[in-house]
Amino acid sequence: MPNLSQQNNVESMRVDKWLWVARFFKTRSISKAAIEGGKVHHNSERVKVSKEVRVGMELTIQQGFDRKTIVIKALSAIRGAAPIAQQLYAETEVSIARRELLATQRKLHNLARPEHRPSKKDRRQISKFKQDNNQQSDQS
């Protein structure tokens, strides 16, 4: 299995290939579709699929709810194992903090949901409550 230093002989490569090699996307075609869909930015501007990336560039990648801001640390021509792929980039501290905050907010939002759907009796009581309150507000 080749290590990172053996793969480091590349100066620049296409952004779609690098995102695939760094394991942000499962296939190059999914990587290409994400770029064309405006999910990848460099300097707050959308990138094109053929954009050449170099070491030190900062990319913002939107995947589902998560928006990651990463700095490219290395380039590799070979898609390797996940631990090797994680050495190709570093996520910024601000990005990590923002993602954790948003994840916490999503979890808290899900806790506000009721545990079960209202039964038929519950629905009747809700509709009666709404009717009673609507009639009171109309009379005021």
Features:
Structural Genomics Hypothetical 15.5 Kd Protein In mrcA-pckA Intergenic Region, Chain A, S4_RNA-bd_sf, RNA-binding, 140 residues, S4_RNA-bd, 5-stranded antiparallel beta sheet
Description:
The protein has 140 residues and is α+β, with helices and mostly antiparallel strands. The chain has one domain (4-115): RNA-binding S4 domain (Structural Genomics Hypothetical 15.5 Kd Protein In mrcA-pckA Intergenic Region, Chain A, Roll), CATH 3.10.290.10. It contains six helices and seven strands, in the order αβααβββββαβαα. The chain has helices at residues 4-7, 15-21, 28-36, 82-85, 93-111, 120-139, and strands spanning 13-14, 40-42, 45-46, 52-53, 58-63, 66-72, 89-91. A five-stranded antiparallel beta sheet has the order 3-2-5-6-7. The chain has a two-stranded antiparallel sheet with strand order 1-4. A hairpin with a 2-residue loop joins β5 (58-63) and β6. α2 (15-21) packs across α3 (28-36). The longest helix is centred in the last third of the chain and has 20 residues, at 120-139. It starts with a helix and ends with a helix.
